[in-house]
Amino acid sequence: MQKKLTLTIDEEVYNGLRTVIGPRKISRFIEELVRPHVVKKNMYAAYKAMAADQVRESEALEWSEGTFGDVNDEKR
Q1: Cα–Cα distance for residue pair 44/38, rounded to 1 Å
Q2: Residues 33, 62 within the same domain
């Protein structure tokens, strides 16, 4: 079920949303931004799905392993 919500935002922000996102896509854009901050019940399932993505996990591991060298190069 969807609910209608009235928001008040700066005109410049509104114009930017219409230009960048499109006039008929603003609601979806805002919902996708807000959802992770207010709907937590599917967080476990989302983490499980991310962990099952072998390509993503491989890239994440490669990235994190690459950052160790950066730390060693820093002066104390």
Answers
A1: 14
A2: no
Measured CA distances, 64 to 3, 54, 59 (Å): 41, 15, 9
16-73 pLDDT, tens digit each: 999 999 999 999 999 999 988 887 777 778 888 888 989 988 888 888 887 776 666 6
Q: What CA–CA distance (Å, rounded) separates 42 from 29?
A: 19
53 and 32 in a single domain? The answer is no
Output the DSSP codes for 19-30. HHT-TTSHHHHH
Evaluate whether 51 touches 57 at the Cβ level (below 8 Å).
yes
- Number of domains, the chain: 2
